[in-house]
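Researcher: Next sequence.
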Amino acid sequence: MLYLKRKICENSFKFDTIPDVDVYKWDPEELPELSPLENRQWYFFGPRYRRYPRTGARLNRATKQGYWKPAGRVRNIVCNSRKVGVKKTLVFYRGRAPRGERTDWEMQEYTLNEKELKGCTNVQDCYALYKLYKNKKRGNVPGIIFQYNKH
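Model: Next structure:
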Protein backbone atom coordinates (compact mmCIF):
# COMPACT_ATOMS: atom_id res chain seq x y z
CA MET A 1 0.00 0.00 0.00
CA LEU A 2 3.00 2.27 0.55
CA TYR A 3 3.88 2.14 -3.16
CA LEU A 4 0.29 2.91 -4.12
CA LYS A 5 0.16 5.88 -1.77
CA ARG A 6 3.42 7.24 -3.14
CA LYS A 7 2.16 6.71 -6.70
CA ILE A 8 -1.07 8.59 -6.01
CA CYS A 9 0.43 11.41 -3.92
CA GLU A 10 3.69 11.97 -5.81
CA ASN A 11 3.04 12.37 -9.52
CA SER A 12 6.76 11.93 -10.21
CA PHE A 13 7.06 8.55 -8.40
CA LYS A 14 8.45 5.86 -10.71
CA PHE A 15 8.96 2.25 -9.70
CA ASP A 16 10.50 0.31 -12.59
CA THR A 17 9.20 -3.12 -11.65
CA ILE A 18 5.57 -1.91 -11.45
CA PRO A 19 4.60 -0.26 -14.75
CA ASP A 20 1.66 2.06 -15.42
CA VAL A 21 -0.87 0.07 -17.46
CA ASP A 22 -4.57 0.46 -18.04
CA VAL A 23 -5.35 -3.18 -17.23
CA TYR A 24 -8.90 -2.95 -18.61
CA LYS A 25 -7.68 -2.18 -22.13
CA TRP A 26 -5.85 -5.51 -22.31
CA ASP A 27 -6.94 -9.11 -22.03
CA PRO A 28 -5.20 -10.92 -19.15
CA GLU A 29 -2.97 -13.12 -21.33
CA GLU A 30 -1.51 -9.95 -22.92
CA LEU A 31 -0.63 -8.23 -19.63
CA PRO A 32 2.44 -10.32 -18.61
CA GLU A 33 4.24 -9.04 -21.73
CA LEU A 34 3.84 -5.49 -20.40
CA SER A 35 5.62 -6.26 -17.13
CA PRO A 36 9.38 -6.40 -16.61
CA LEU A 37 8.83 -9.25 -14.12
CA GLU A 38 9.17 -12.81 -15.37
CA ASN A 39 7.12 -14.53 -12.73
CA ARG A 40 3.79 -16.20 -12.11
CA GLN A 41 2.27 -12.99 -10.85
CA TRP A 42 2.52 -9.48 -12.22
CA TYR A 43 1.89 -6.05 -10.68
CA PHE A 44 0.59 -2.89 -12.35
CA PHE A 45 -0.43 0.61 -11.37
CA GLY A 46 -3.47 1.77 -13.25
CA PRO A 47 -6.54 3.98 -13.37
CA ARG A 48 -10.04 2.84 -12.46
CA TYR A 49 -12.67 4.14 -14.88
CA ARG A 50 -16.20 4.77 -13.80
CA ARG A 51 -18.89 3.52 -16.19
CA TYR A 52 -20.99 6.63 -15.53
CA PRO A 53 -18.44 9.32 -14.52
CA ARG A 54 -20.91 11.98 -13.43
CA THR A 55 -23.55 9.99 -11.64
CA GLY A 56 -22.48 6.56 -10.48
CA ALA A 57 -19.89 4.61 -8.61
CA ARG A 58 -20.04 1.51 -10.83
CA LEU A 59 -16.71 0.73 -12.43
CA ASN A 60 -16.17 -0.21 -16.04
CA ARG A 61 -14.22 -3.49 -16.04
CA ALA A 62 -14.81 -4.59 -19.64
CA THR A 63 -11.90 -5.55 -21.92
CA LYS A 64 -11.80 -6.34 -25.64
CA GLN A 65 -12.61 -10.04 -25.22
CA GLY A 66 -14.39 -10.19 -21.85
CA TYR A 67 -14.85 -8.63 -18.44
CA TRP A 68 -13.55 -8.75 -14.88
CA LYS A 69 -16.17 -9.79 -12.36
CA PRO A 70 -15.78 -9.27 -8.60
CA ALA A 71 -15.52 -12.54 -6.67
CA GLY A 72 -15.74 -13.01 -2.94
CA ARG A 73 -15.94 -10.20 -0.48
CA VAL A 74 -14.08 -6.94 -0.23
CA ARG A 75 -11.34 -7.19 2.39
CA ASN A 76 -10.09 -4.29 4.49
CA ILE A 77 -6.37 -3.57 4.64
CA VAL A 78 -5.33 -2.53 8.13
CA CYS A 79 -2.07 -0.84 9.16
CA ASN A 80 -1.34 0.14 12.77
CA SER A 81 -4.94 -0.79 13.72
CA ARG A 82 -6.53 1.62 11.23
CA LYS A 83 -8.20 0.84 7.92
CA VAL A 84 -6.06 2.23 5.09
CA GLY A 85 -7.60 0.57 2.05
CA VAL A 86 -9.43 -2.35 0.50
CA LYS A 87 -8.59 -5.40 -1.58
CA LYS A 88 -11.01 -6.83 -4.15
CA THR A 89 -10.56 -10.09 -6.02
CA LEU A 90 -11.70 -10.16 -9.65
CA VAL A 91 -12.09 -13.13 -12.01
CA PHE A 92 -11.85 -12.80 -15.79
CA TYR A 93 -14.76 -14.04 -17.92
CA ARG A 94 -14.39 -14.41 -21.70
CA GLY A 95 -17.41 -13.14 -23.64
CA ARG A 96 -20.08 -10.65 -22.62
CA ALA A 97 -22.00 -10.53 -19.37
CA PRO A 98 -23.97 -12.36 -18.13
CA ARG A 99 -23.08 -15.31 -20.37
CA GLY A 100 -19.30 -15.13 -20.14
CA GLU A 101 -17.14 -18.19 -19.59
CA ARG A 102 -14.99 -18.18 -16.47
CA THR A 103 -11.22 -18.41 -16.97
CA ASP A 104 -8.31 -19.17 -14.64
CA TRP A 105 -7.15 -15.54 -14.66
CA GLU A 106 -7.62 -13.62 -11.42
CA MET A 107 -6.61 -10.17 -10.29
CA GLN A 108 -6.52 -8.40 -6.96
CA GLU A 109 -7.28 -4.68 -6.93
CA TYR A 110 -5.84 -2.63 -4.06
CA THR A 111 -7.24 0.84 -3.42
CA LEU A 112 -6.67 3.42 -0.69
CA ASN A 113 -9.30 5.08 1.50
CA GLU A 114 -10.02 8.76 1.06
CA LYS A 115 -8.93 9.43 4.67
CA GLU A 116 -5.51 8.03 3.83
CA LEU A 117 -5.14 10.54 0.99
CA LYS A 118 -6.30 13.70 2.82
CA GLY A 119 -2.76 15.01 3.39
CA CYS A 120 -1.77 14.57 -0.25
CA THR A 121 -1.76 17.30 -2.87
CA ASN A 122 -2.20 16.59 -6.59
CA VAL A 123 -4.03 13.34 -5.89
CA GLN A 124 -4.64 11.15 -8.95
CA ASP A 125 -8.26 10.11 -8.45
CA CYS A 126 -9.31 6.49 -8.92
CA TYR A 127 -5.88 4.89 -9.09
CA ALA A 128 -5.18 1.32 -7.97
CA LEU A 129 -2.47 -1.33 -7.66
CA TYR A 130 -3.28 -4.58 -9.48
CA LYS A 131 -1.84 -8.05 -8.90
CA LEU A 132 -2.49 -10.42 -11.82
CA TYR A 133 -2.08 -14.21 -11.65
CA LYS A 134 -3.42 -17.44 -13.05
CA ASN A 135 -5.25 -19.54 -10.47
CA LYS A 136 -3.86 -23.06 -10.83
CA LYS A 137 -6.08 -24.44 -8.06
CA ARG A 138 -9.15 -24.07 -10.23
CA GLY A 139 -7.69 -26.02 -13.12
CA ASN A 140 -9.26 -26.38 -16.54
CA VAL A 141 -11.93 -28.82 -15.40
CA PRO A 142 -15.41 -27.65 -16.38
CA GLY A 143 -18.06 -27.47 -13.69
CA ILE A 144 -20.17 -30.54 -13.00
CA ILE A 145 -23.53 -30.45 -14.70
CA PHE A 146 -26.34 -32.20 -12.89
CA GLN A 147 -29.05 -33.75 -14.96
CA TYR A 148 -32.47 -34.72 -13.73
CA ASN A 149 -33.78 -37.90 -15.28
CA LYS A 150 -37.50 -38.55 -15.08
CA HIS A 151 -38.44 -42.21 -14.65
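Model: The chain is about 5% helix and 35% strand. The first helix runs from residue 2 to 9.
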